[in-house]
Automatic annotation (TrEMBL):
It comes from Actinomadura barringtoniae. Transmembrane segments: none annotated. This is MBL fold metallo-hydrolase. Pfam families: Lactamase_B (PF00753). InterPro entries: DHPS-like_MBL-fold (IPR041712), Metallo-B-lactamas (IPR001279), Metallo-beta-lactamase_dom (IPR052926), RibonucZ/Hydroxyglut_hydro (IPR036866). Residues 92-158 form the Metallo-beta-lactamase domain. GO terms for molecular function: transferase activity.
Length: 348
């Protein structure tokens, strides 16, 4: 997906549109007292990572015992599933009340629910589901979730149903396409929104479409294509990409991304414009900086994030190792290695 760079026509097609000044319709995002983000699925699981006062890790032995006949007692410790996907449980505390959301569901039907079970997390109190976009590595776990929960509201962008394919030489394939009919049949109450959405009495913002305002975050390379009804065409923007935003009282914005196809800096600036809150407290999730097509974006992204100076930075999923190293070097006090089963607790 990220192995080739575009030419002049692709660059022009993916250039950002201007969005200067304050938002036309600003969002009054109510401050919250605490945000807890539990990474249910990420690309890695490392049981040897250390935690601190805001980061709780899942260690060996903390996720139960499973059968393993090759050992003398027939048992072994269970780990957590890591796959090329992302899913996070978000708990928001406001005025003494805790509400839980699910942001993305990973790639495979069982990874997210398996990890949740091993972590002792149930879905009975789940308020709703939010999809960052329609790519299969963020929506694959919906089937596993549906088998274990009641009917749930689900917020998606209407372009999440877009047919897409990758045209990398030697590896040309159509991606799994999310089905609105199937989700309706599984009991999800699908809510399609292109515009920003406020959830939980105005304390959680779903950005909707993100304004593309930077000069360097140009989107996907020509290999990423979408069906427009008559033909396949380059799909640089992945316009259904959206993020989850919370305003932590006295600290600033907490921004959670899926893949960050809109660009990490575009997303943060969009959230700042919508809410009028300038301070970025935390950025967690995929930043899509892996692969040759995106490596030129790493340096300006690092520079912009350094200026934003978040207290917590957790690049996950598709961020890529080169970006991880660059961000860790530039923001050593904020950067934290992501891993399946990690909990980030941020308090006002």
């Amino acid at each position: 997906m990220c192995d080739t760079a575009g030419g002049i026509s692709e660059v022009v097609e993916s250039m950002p549109r201007p969005a200067h000044g304050t938002a036309v319709d600003p969002i009054a995002l109510e401050p919250v007292d605490q945000v807890e983000i539990v990474t249910l699925v990420d690309n890695v699981f490392d049981a040897l990572l250390a935690g601190d006062e805001r980061v709780r890790r899942t260690a060996f032995g903390a996720t139960g015992i499973v059968e393993a006949p090759q050992f003398e007692n027939g048992m072994t410790a269970a780990g957590l599933v890591a796959e090329h996907g992302f899913s996070a449980l978000v708990r928001v505390v406001r005025n003494g009340r805790t509400t839980t959301l699910l942001f993305d569901t990973g790639m495979s039907p069982e990874a997210m629910v398996t990890n949740a079970e091993r972590l002792g997390i149930g879905f009975d109190d789940l308020h709703s589901v939010v999809l960052s976009h329609g790519h299969f590595d963020h929506a694959g776990g919906l089937a596993g979730l549906a088998a274990r929960t009641r009917s749930l509201p689900m917020v998606v962008h209407p372009y999440a149903w877009t047919r897409r394919r990758l045209m990398v030489p030697g590896d040309e394939r159509e991606l799994p396409t999310l089905s609105r009919k199937a989700l309706d049949g599984e009991g999800y109450e699908v809510i399609e929104r292109r515009e920003p959405s406020l959830l939980l009495d105005g304390s959680v913002l779903i950005t909707g479409e993100v304004d593309r305002t930077t000069g360097f975050e140009r989107g996907m390379p020509p290999a990423h294509q979408a069906w427009n009804g008559t033909d396949w065409a380059h799909d640089p923007l992945v316009i259904d990409d959206q993020a989850l935003v919370v305003n932590l009282r006295g600290q600033g914005l907490v921004v959670l991304t899926g893949c960050g196809h809109a660009g990490a800096i575009n997303i943060v600036r969009h959230a700042q414009r919508l809410t009028g809150v300038d301070r970025l407290h935390a950025l967690v999730g995929g930043l899509h900086l892996g692969g040759p097509a995106f490596e030129p974006v790493i340096r300006p992204t690092v520079n912009a994030l350094t200026d934003l100076s978040p207290a917590l930075l957790v690049p996950g999923h598709c961020s890529g190792w080169r970006a991880q190293h660059a961000l860790a070097a530039a923001l050593p006090d904020a950067w934290v290695q992501g891993s399946s089963g990690t909990t980030y607790r941020l308090t006002a």
